[in-house]
Structures are given as structure tokens and as C-alpha cells.
């Protein structure tokens, strides 16, 4: 039986390797860390989360939540481990990133069918079944080889990670614990601005010193709209942050009374910075939506202008890095096989999907299909009515000219037979139809 090679030990590569071994096929998983460190990673663990610790909304009537549930039913090791290592985050699936990655590393290294090799791969192997899961930080040498293989230029955009703060350095006389409109468990720490504080904070952000991009990066930088640095949002207008990550709607300090009381409506902050729990013990908190490219000294100075964070202790500053993805509509089948080379597959953000859960889904599909190729079976596609199936149908059939990274969303799923105006009810119908289709497909086509 051939040994499958998976290049990249991120979410997609980890999931792919596990699904291959689960099918009874031996696999070599290549991860270059710690021999070579990327500009965004901090450890040598597999599936390290380099940006947020959140996988998105948990509810299955939300796009990310539906993809979570589909992956649970398909036996995803990433989602299973995320559930095990979850931390309070309101309606989101967030994890203790350290224990999450540590558990996955242990699980894979203990599997006798998985061989983990700490080695940088600079060229696509010429023989065998290969999965490229090198993610948004594909090394320049491998990127050049992939460019030569495809004969195409790369598309790239810039992504950034938020700072993390120590709990004991937060001023709880100012900061309050609450979730928007009191929905779910009160899981976010909220730092309230009045108007004067907010305008001063925005002014300082707009004037702050940023890390200068170098070489071709400066010419080709393109920010992904779903992950804009906070200073870029600040420059777009006085109220842009207040309609984005600093949105105050539905957030009230419970110490000031019941937000439903009409007399208390004026007590709503002008803007709010939210902090989300980063680890199980609640000792670390992530600044939600505060991706940034500011110099570290500027980050400390300006972010300590946020009410309640005047003495904030940062364990990780915000960082920014280049992301790379291929033009999948021209290159890939919905099975994630390259059109020109059926034994070469790709998965993760490299293929132009956006977000942790989408990367996991790509790893599941690429790993499953690689194993099927090794066993002499035909590759599969997931039903288009599911979030997973719709996502990979989209990236393999979108317009190549305007192709951009795509997160899970209900806009890519085929429309319902009956139009439903109420958005919540419509999303629930999408959910029910997707999970019904998936369950039927599992029973009929793919036994897990």
C-alpha cells in the first residue's frame, strides 16, 4: 500500500493525516517547525492557532456552526478536540489554544500509521499521493515550485492576529462582564468608551506608527475585508469601528441596572472593546477584532488608552503576516484534486477558503480522498446542499478572474425551494436541509 505524504501540520494537514490513518492507510506528515519557524507561529505543536482562538459561532443555524456540526458527524479530529478544549465565549466555539494543539500533537504522534517528520519540503514530491496543506504561510521555495507547477501567479492578502492580555492586569472597576443583549452565558469582558475617550483613541490609532511592508509585499498587499487591522478601520471613518468590532449595541454594564429599563438606555457606552477568554483558566484574554500592524511599542501605548486596560500586561502583541492562496477555480476539482495531476491535492487556506473550520473541512475532504485513491476507490464530493459541499463547489467553480478567499456563508448554498423572508427561519431551514442531506449521504455513500 502506498504511503501518502501530507505537507504542513496546521489544521488542514492535521485533519488530513488523521483521516488517512483512520482509513487504514499509512501517512507521513511533514512539519518544518521547530527546525524552521514561521513569522506567525510561537510553538512547534501541530494545528497551532495563530490568530484568534475562536472557530466561530456554535449554533448550527449560523454558517460556521453548521460546518462545525457537519464535521462532527463526519468524525473530524479537529472539531472533536476543539469541543474537548473549549472555553466560555458566549455563542462561539473558542478553545484553550495551548491544550488544543498539545492534545492534537499527542493524538497524531501516538498513531502507528502516522509518521511525523520535522522537515521543510521545498519542492512538490514528483511521485505518490500528495496533499499540500502548507497554509497561508507557504515558504518561498515551495511557493515558487508551486507557481512553476501551475504556471500561474499567486494571489496574496495580509492577515493579522490580535494581542492577548493577562487577566489580573485588567481594571474590573471599569470593565464589565456581559454578552450582547444578555444572550447566552456572560462570556465577554467589555471595556466601555465615552465619546471623548473614543475620539481620542481613534485619533491616536490613525496617527500611530505602522510596521512598513517590504519589497513586493508593499506593492501587492491586499487586506482581507473580514480581518482588517484595527488601524485600517479607524482610518475609514469616525464611526467605522463603532459599526464593527467596537459596536456598543446591546452591551450594558449590569452594575448600572437592567438594560431593558427605558431609563437606562442612555447608559449604553459610546463604543466597546470586547475581550474573549483565551484559556480554560481565564487567565488570558484576547482583544476581539484587534488585528494590527502597529509597532509593538505603539500597541502598548495606544491600547492602554482603552478604559480598563490602562495597566494591561500583554503576553502576545498583535502581528501581521502575508497569506497566500492559489486560483482554485482554474486549478482544482471539487474533490480538491488538481485538475492536471489527480494524485496531488490541496487543502486549507491555500485553496482560498477562509477560517479555521473551513481549513479543517478541506483537510477532511483531501485526507479522505487521498486515502480513497490509495485504496483504489473513486474520490468523493460532499452534497452541495451542505455548507461543506457548497464551499468546495464554490472555490472550484467561481470566476477565476475575481476569485477571493471565501468563508462559510449561507449565500453559497443553493436556494430553498420556498422563499422565506425571515432570516433566522431561513437559516434554520438551510441547517435542517443540510444536515438531513449529510445524514442521508453518510448512510448511502460514505460509512463513518
Short description:
With 448 residues, the protein is of the alpha+beta class. It is built from 13 helices and 17 strands. A six-stranded mixed beta sheet has the order 6-2-1-7-17-16, covered by helices on one side. Strands 10-11-12-13-9-14 form a six-stranded antiparallel beta sheet.
Describe it:
The protein is of the alpha+beta class. It folds into two domains: 4-154 and 326-444, 3-Layer(bba) Sandwich (FAD/NAD(P)-binding domain), CATH 3.50.50.60; 161-321, Elongation Factor Tu (Ef-tu), domain 3 (Beta Barrel), CATH 2.40.30. Helices cover 32% and strands 16% of the residues. It has helices at residues 11-22, 63-73, 77-84, 97-109, 140-150, 195-207, 215-220, 230-235, 296-303, 328-331, 356-374, 387-397, 423-444; strands at residues 4-7, 27-30, 54-57, 86-87, 92-95, 114-117, 130-132, 155-161, 164-166, 176-178, 188-193, 271-277, 284-287, 314-316, 319-325, 337-338, 341-346. Helix 1 (11-22) runs parallel beside helix 11 (356-374), helix 2 (63-73) packs parallel to helix 11 (356-374) and helix 2 (63-73) packs parallel to helix 13 (423-444). The protein is globular, with a radius of gyration of 22 Å.
Annotation keywords:
6-stranded antiparallel beta sheet; 32% helix; 2 domains; Elongation Factor Tu (Ef-tu), domain 3; FAD/NAD(P)-binding domain; 448 residues; globular
- What is the CATH topology classification name of the largest domain? FAD/NAD(P)-binding domain
What oligomerization state is this entry in? single chain
The shape, in one word, is: globular
Do you know the CATH architecture of the largest domain? 3-Layer(bba) Sandwich
Can you summarize the main beta sheet?
A: 6 strands, mixed
On the 0-100 scale, what is the average pLDDT?
89
**Element-by-element helix/strand order:** EHEEHHEEHEEHEEEEHHHEEHEEHEEHHH
The secondary structure category is: alpha+beta
The CATH superfamily of the largest domain turns out to be FAD/NAD(P)-binding domain
Q: State Rg.
A: 22 Å
- Low-pLDDT residue intervals, each spanning 5 or more residues: 214-221
Distance between the termini: 21 Å
CATH domain class of the largest domain: Alpha Beta
Amino acid at each position: 500500500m502506498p504511503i501518502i505524504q501530507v505537507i504542513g501540520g496546521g489544521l488542514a494537514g492535521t485533519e488530513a493525516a488523521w483521516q488517512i490513518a483512520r482509513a487504514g492507510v499509512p501517512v507521513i506528515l511533514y512539519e518544518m517547525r521547530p527546525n524552521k519557524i514561521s513569522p506567525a507561529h510561537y510553538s512547534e505543536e501541530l494545528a497551532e492557532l495563530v490568530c484568534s482562538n475562536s472557530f466561530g459561532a456554535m449554533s448550527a443555524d449560523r454558517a460556521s456552526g453548521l460546518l462545525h456540526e457537519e464535521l462532527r458527524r463526519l468524525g473530524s479530529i479537529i472539531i472533536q478536540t476543539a469541543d474537548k478544549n473549549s472555553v466560555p465565549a458566549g455563542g462561539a466555539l473558542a478553545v484553550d489554544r495551548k491544550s488544543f494543539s498539545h492534545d492534537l500533537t499527542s493524538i497524531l504522534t501516538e498513531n502507528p500509521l502516522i509518521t511525523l517528520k520535522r522537515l521543510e519540503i521545498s519542492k512538490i514530491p514528483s511521485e505518490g499521493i500528495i496533499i499540500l496543506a502548507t497554509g497561508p504561510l507557504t515558504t518561498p521555495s515551495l511557493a515558487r515550485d508551486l507557481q512553476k507547477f501551475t504556471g500561474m501567479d499567486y494571489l496574496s492578502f495580509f492577515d493579522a492576529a490580535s494581542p492577548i492580555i493577562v487577566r489580573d492586569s485588567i481594571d474590573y472597576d471599569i470593565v464589565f462582564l456581559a454578552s450582547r443583549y444578555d444572550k447566552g452565558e456572560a462570556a465577554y469582558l467589555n471595556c466601555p468608551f465615552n465619546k471623548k475617550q473614543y475620539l481620542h483613541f481613534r485619533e491616536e490609532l490613525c496617527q500611530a506608527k505602522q510596521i512598513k511592508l517590504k519589497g513586493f509585499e508593499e506593492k501587492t498587499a491586499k487586506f482581507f475585508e473580514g480581518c482588517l487591522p484595527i488601524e485600517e478601520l479607524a482610518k475609514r471613518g469616525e464611526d467605522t469601528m463603532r459599526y464593527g468590532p467596537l459596536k456598543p449595541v446591546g452591551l450594558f454594564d449590569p452594575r448600572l441596572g437592567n438594560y431593558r429599563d427605558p431609563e437606562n438606555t442612555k447608559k449604553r457606552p459610546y463604543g466597546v472593546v470586547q475581550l474573549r477568554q483565551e484559556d480554560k483558566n481565564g487567565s488570558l484574554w484576547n482583544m476581539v477584532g484587534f488585528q494590527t500592524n502597529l509597532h509593538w511599542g505603539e500597541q502598548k501605548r495606544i491600547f492602554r488608552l482603552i478604559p480598563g486596560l490602562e495597566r494591561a500586561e500583554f503576553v502576545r502583541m498583535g502581528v501581521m503576516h502575508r497569506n497566500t492562496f492559489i486560483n482554485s477555480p482554474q486549478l482544482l476539482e471539487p474533490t480538491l484534486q488538481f485538475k492536471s495531476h489527480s494524485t496531488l491535492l490541496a487543502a486549507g487556506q491555500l485553496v482560498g477558503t477562509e477560517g479555521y473550520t473551513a481549513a479543517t473541512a478541506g483537510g477532511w475532504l483531501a485526507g479522505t480522498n487521498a486515502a480513497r485513491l490509495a485504496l483504489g476507490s473513486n474520490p468523493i464530493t460532499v452534497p452541495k446542499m451542505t455548507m461543506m459541499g457548497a464551499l468546495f463547489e464554490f472555490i472550484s467553480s467561481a470566476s477565476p478572474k475575481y476569485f477571493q478567499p471565501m468563508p462559510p456563508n449561507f449565500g453559497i448554498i443553493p436556494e430553498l425551494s420556498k422563499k422565506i423572508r425571515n432570516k433566522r427561519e431561513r437559516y434554520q431551514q438551510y441547517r435542517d436541509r443540510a444536515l438531513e442531506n449529510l445524514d442521508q449521504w453518510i448512510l448511502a455513500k460514505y460509512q463513518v
